[in-house]
UniProtKB/TrEMBL annotation:
Transmembrane segments: none
Integrase catalytic domain span: 165-329
Coiled coil regions in record: none
Annotated keywords: DNA recombination
SUPFAM superfamilies (UniProt xref): Ribonuclease H-like
Keyword Lyase: no
Keyword Iron applies: no
Lineage: Bacteria, Pseudomonadati, Pseudomonadota, Alphaproteobacteria, Hyphomicrobiales
InterPro entries: Integrase_cat-core (IPR001584), IS30-like_HTH (IPR025246), RNaseH-like_sf (IPR012337), RNaseH_sf (IPR036397), Transposase-Integrase (IPR051917), Transposase_IS30-like (IPR053392)
UniProt protein name: IS30 family transposase
Amino acid sequence: MGRSFVQLSLDERRVIARMHEKKISQAQIARTLRRDRSTICRELRRNFWHDREARVADGYWHVTAHAMASDRRRKYRKLLRDPALCAAVVDRLKNGWSPEQISGRLKLASGSSAGLSHETIYQYIYSQEGQDQQLARYLPERRRKRRPRYARKPRSLVFPMECAIRNRPEAINSRSEFGHWEADLMIFRKEHGSANIATVVERKSRYTVLFRNNDRRSKPIMSQLIRHLAPLPASARQSLTFDRGLEFVSWRELEKGMGTVAWFCDPQAPWQKGTVENTNKRVRRYLPSETIVLDVTHQEIRALCDRLNETPRKCLGFQTPKEMFSRHLLALER
């Protein structure tokens, strides 16, 4: 994976100016700075100084180029260039709207030509102008300083080593014990929204539970899992195995809500929860990737669960998952 782009520094622009003055090629400048050639080409094109009065001053001057680039980034903020739009955004922030709600409403407003992303609003809130107005205090999550846009917690902290699948007990791996589940999300076409179907399968009986989520936020998904599994006896919901998707980062809610242990596959190894992966293939017969999930009713999802659970399985000696699951539940009650 290539590294993320970092703005050219003043020292890099100084090197570009010296080498460009000596007629050194853009390719050689790029190799010297370990930058892409297109970066050098774009820099010389955008920040080349043209003196409109005295042509003798034309050229690439590193200090001038750095100032031009900084000024361009500052002017890029739409809210600094449109005071009326800025006032409308600030007013909505003070009324408790989130930047995403403000952006979505502006796009929805009939006749509105003010296209504005929520990222632009966040940039303004944490800019010097926004800090002078103390706008961050109106956000749902109030922070004096903004976290980096794509910052994430180290996966080792989110999914600790003690929960790795390699540490999962042999009784679960061998399917000799009842009450251990695997879970996954079935994702559909992006243009149909973020709604998805969660698949939860008990490893020993292959009993399947399906439910719909309207987005991929982790806490609502965990709440749904608790709602569906909590009515079972504790011995029937001992553990759940997930992959390392961000939709499962709130897995600790399971331990708090119903005492269920979570296990996690190795990175890029979904085959380690093969039971739910194979179940997803069965479900895809009825819910292909182009399905509009929000149009699928809960009754239809329930009927699909019944179809899967009432179909004989070779791995169960041609008994059905429903029969096996009921038998194990009865054994727990004795």
